[in-house]
Amino acid sequence: GAGVSQSPSNKVTEKGKDVELRCDPISGHTALYWYRQSLGQGLEFLIYFQGNSAPDKSGLPSDRFSAERTGGSVSTLTIQRTQQEDSAVYLCASSPKTNTEAFFGQGTRLTVV
Amino acid sequence: QKEVEQNSGPLSVPEGAIASLNCTYSDRGSQSFFWYRQYSGKSPELIMFIYSNGDKEDGRFTAQLNKASQYVSLLIRDSQPSDSATYLCAVPYSGTYKYIFGTGTRLKVLA
Question: Sign of the CA dihedral B4, B10, B11, B15?
């Protein structure tokens, strides 16, 4: 596709349920990033992939959060046993290589009720 | 703690004026710097990047970098109401691959 694609655009889930968020990066981009943005707040780094490897998972808030990337392309962010504080917009970005310009998807707005 | 700092604003400028947005960073080893624009309810959109000291111009936008003083700025000439948004400064920190974002400066261009 022409840009970074994220799905779903919106997700409402009940507290305690698991959710999967998907990111399809720009074709050929080797670096992929996940960020979280709570209402009115800045961007919080979650995890970074170079190819299929995740050298830096330091931003994952708890062990309920995990992410994977397969085939150097699509990435999935999984949140287990969701809590209300997980409600936020989850943003994915990709770049051709590390430390170059990154392009964002439209985000997934997650609401935990 | 590696940080990127921006004044949260709002910065209000009249239409047609120059808007000046500033960002400071703490990691002297950083080599690349990015400015994103984020409209309310939308995702960040890349508008400028700069790697070398000095100025880089792209249309109405000019990015300025001073590595010795550890600041990067964005000038918007002939500001338009459509420029009203939050502007985020992003710095990939040396030794890591994560972009650290400032909290953003909210710009309001008054018609």
Answer: positive
Interface of B with A (CB under 8 A): 31-32, 34, 36, 42-46, 49, 88, 90, 92, 96-104
Distance from CA of B66 to the nearest CA of A (A): 18
Q: Rounded mean pLDDT of chain A?
A: 93
Yes or no: say if A91 and A77 are a contact pair by the CB < 8 Å rule.
Answer: no
- Retrieve residue A31's tokens: 């670096």
Pick from A55, A102, A106: CB nearest B99: A102
Q: Is B41 exposed, middle or buried (0-12, 13-18, 19+ CB in 10 A)?
A: exposed
Nearest to B62 by CA among B72, B93, B70: B72
Q: Is the pLDDT of residue B86 over 90?
A: yes
- Chain B contacts of A96, Cβ < 8 Å? none
Q: Is B12 helix (H, G, I), strand (E, B) or coil?
A: strand
Q: How confident is the model at residue A103 (pLDDT cuts 50, 70, 90)?
A: very high
Mean pLDDT score of chain B, rounded to an integer? Answer: 93
CA atoms of A47 and A56, how far apart (whole Å) = 6
Q: Is the peptide bond before B14 cis (omega within 30 degrees of 0)?
A: no
What is the enclosing helix (H) or strand (E) of A77? strand A75-79
Which residues make Cβ contacts (< 8 Å) with residue B62, sequence separation at least 6? Answer: B55, B56, B74, B75, B77
CA-to-CA distance for A113 and A11, rounded, in angstroms?
11
CB pair distance less than 8 Å for B101 and A43: yes
